[in-house]
Amino acid sequence: MEDKNYIYHLIALEFSNEMDSAQQHELQSWLKLSSENVAEYNEIIKVLTYYDALDAMKKIDVSHDLLLVKKKLNKHSNKNTFVMNFQKVAAILLLPLLIYTAWNISKPSTFSKKVSLMKTSETTFGVRSQIQLSDGTKVWINSGSKLTYPDEFTGKVREVKLEGEAYFQVESDKEHPFYVDLNGCKVKATGTRFNISNYKEDNEITTYLEHGKVSLLSAVSKDSNKSVQLNENEIIVYQKADKQYHITNADGKKYIGWIDGALIFKNDDTNDVAARLGRWFNAEIIFDEEVLKSDYVFTATFKHESLEEALRLLSYSTPITYKILSGSKQDDSSFSKRKVLISKK
Question: Transmembrane segments in this chain: where (predicted)?
Answer without folding.
Answer: 82-103
